[in-house]
């Protein structure tokens, strides 16, 4: 089996029974904020796109590049479609001209022509990616690989049961806006960023240890930031709180943990995997390339600047009445929302900076009041500040997912009072009838976990209230605090209170105490916390 690195989470898998192109991303994403690094735009995409199968793990725009898919990927390719709860991915691919689909069943091995076997595990929490994320397992002639990309399954048992994996490709770097955009002292940002950076590595190492593949390949990040306004987010300044460490930094951190079986794939690197060996040919020396990372970024910034400026020129839509359009789009969804609205629990304020860079219009999405209105000087717990042009553009294109556009762009600042609230972001990625109804139904169906386990001196429910991670594997007790290492969520053991986010409760008691007569009521919601994961 041959794996060609094509940048970020993208790769091409070639076997005697056919080729699979995965997650091709080339064009800037999220308001021209994210670019693939190393640059992959100069690869021979005409040849790479002439594939037998296409696999897109989910709809995040650093995985689903509509412009590139339309122009470069053969429409004769059969799409390996994850079993997602909505039809959005198929709808978008059909709009791009794809006509051949294999609708896979999650966790089911499908045998394709020539003995090629694939399995796609779909994750379907409302906050897994934009309504769904997935991983791809491939087997041919005794060689097995797992392309986990940036999916976060609670465990990898399903894959291990299919046989030893020879190459494990997975995310290790950040892909979020936290803590950089928050209105915090720099020292606090650095401390929170370091905590998140450490959690990212810890989670990756745990996945690696669980699967015990012959070889490990760090993929799916980090992006690079070429706009001058975002340049500081690149990990080139010696900031220990930067959440975007690159592949070479991963190599060094992995080595500290005894890891000796990893390989970095540059765009154009070719890895040949057999049951007994792995060999890789690179287009340039990998260590030398990352030793000159800043120079490569500066060259990319100069070359891509016209693309960024052209994108910025397209965002302004002065003809859009923002308040009127937000009311039209959002108020019907507020009327239908029960679980998400209750989870948010208060008004969310948007401060929109005008074209002149100084004037500000403040609009409130009032969840209890079920309305969108002008800000009325009331106290709010959650506030976002961004350019008016960005909201104009979202409304103009009728974007249904403001997380997979505005928030991931990092072109905003945020302030909050109290804990992180995942329901705020869950709602703003569900600005369509289909998404909202699915999310509301998912939250409504959540049940308390009835099984208990012993961790240290405490009896706790086996599954994390957040995303059902198995706490026998991911739970760490330190004094009176339990941390679920899958996403870094913390719980106060004496009370069961979640210390990380509102709306979650852990069933817990001291090991010598009697069990309560009845289990606590289910939490008001259960979804992935993007900022904390």
UniProtKB/TrEMBL annotation:
Chain ranges of the Rieske domain: 460-499
Name this protein carries in UniProt: MBL fold metallo-hydrolase
Region of interest (Disordered), residue spans: 511-533
Assigned keywords, A-Z: 2Fe-2S, Iron, Iron-sulfur, Metal-binding
InterPro entries: RibonucZ/Hydroxyglut_hydro, Rieske_2Fe-2S, Rieske_2Fe-2S_sf, SCP2_Rv3818
Annotated source species: Dactylosporangium maewongense
Pfam families: Rieske, SCP2_Rv3818
Iron-sulfur is among the record's keywords: yes
The keyword Calcium is assigned to this record: no
């Amino acid at each position: 089996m041959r794996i060609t690195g094509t940048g970020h989470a993208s790769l091409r898998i070639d076997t005697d029974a056919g080729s699979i192109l995965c997650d091709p991303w080339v064009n800037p994403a999220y308001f021209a904020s994210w670019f693939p690094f190393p640059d992959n735009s100069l690869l021979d995409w005409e040849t790479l796109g002439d594939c037998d199968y296409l696999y897109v793990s989910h709809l995040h725009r650093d995985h689903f590049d509509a412009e590139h898919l339309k122009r470069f990927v053969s429409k004769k390719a059969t799409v390996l479609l994850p079993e997602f709860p909505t039809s959005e991915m198929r709808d978008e691919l059909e709009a791009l001209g794809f006509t051949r689909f294999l609708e896979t069943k999650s966790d089911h091995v499908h045998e394709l022509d020539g003995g090629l076997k694939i399995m796609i595990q779909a994750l379907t929490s409302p906050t897994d990616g934009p309504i769904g994320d997935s991983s791809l397992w491939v087997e041919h002639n005794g060689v097995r690989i797992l392309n986990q990309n940036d999916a976060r399954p609670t465990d990898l048992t399903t894959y291990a049961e299919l046989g030893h994996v020879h190459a494990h490709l997975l995310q290790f770097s950040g892909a979020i806006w936290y803590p950089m955009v928050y209105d915090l002292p720099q020292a606090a940002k650095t401390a929170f960023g370091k905590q998140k950076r450490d959690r990212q590595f810890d989670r990756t190492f745990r996945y690696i240890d669980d699967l015990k593949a012959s070889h490990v390949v760090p993929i799916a990040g980090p992006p690079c930031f070429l706009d001058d306004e975002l340049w500081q987010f690149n990990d080139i300044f010696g900031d220990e709180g930067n959440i975007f460490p690159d592949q070479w930094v991963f190599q060094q951190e992995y080595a500290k943990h005894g890891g000796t079986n990893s390989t970095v794939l540059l765009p154009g690197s070719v890895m040949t995997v057999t049951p007994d060996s792995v060999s890789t040919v690179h287009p340039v020396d990998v260590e030398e390339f990352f030793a000159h990372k800043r120079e490569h970024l500066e060259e990319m910034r100069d070359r891509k600047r016209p693309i960024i400026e052209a994108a910025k020129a397209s965002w302004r839509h002065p003809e859009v009445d923002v308040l009127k359009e937000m009311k039209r789009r959002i108020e019907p969804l507020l009327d239908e929302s029960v679980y998400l609205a209750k989870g948010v629990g208060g008004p969310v304020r948007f401060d929109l900076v005008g074209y002149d860079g100084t004037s500000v219009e403040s609009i409130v999405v009032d969840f209890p009041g079920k309305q969108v209105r002008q800000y009325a000087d009331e106290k709010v717990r959650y506030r976002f500040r961004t350019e008016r042009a960005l909201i104009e553009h979202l409304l103009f294109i009728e974007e249904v997912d403001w997380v997979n556009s505005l928030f991931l762009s990092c072109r905003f600042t945020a302030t909050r009072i109290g804990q992180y609230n995942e329901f705020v972001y869950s709602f703003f990625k569900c600005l369509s009838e289909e998404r909202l109804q699915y999310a509301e139904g998912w939250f409504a169906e959540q049940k308390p976990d009835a099984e208990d386990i012993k961790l240290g001196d405490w009896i706790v429910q086996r599954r994390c209230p957040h995303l059902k991670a198995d706490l026998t594997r991911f739970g760490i007790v330190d004094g009176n605090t339990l941390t679920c290492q899958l996403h870094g969520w913390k719980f106060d053991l004496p009370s069961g209170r979640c210390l990380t986010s509102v709306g979650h409760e852990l069933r817990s008691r001291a090991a010598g105490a009697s069990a309560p007569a009845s289990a606590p009521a289910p939490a008001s919601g259960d979804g992935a916390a993007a900022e904390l994961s």
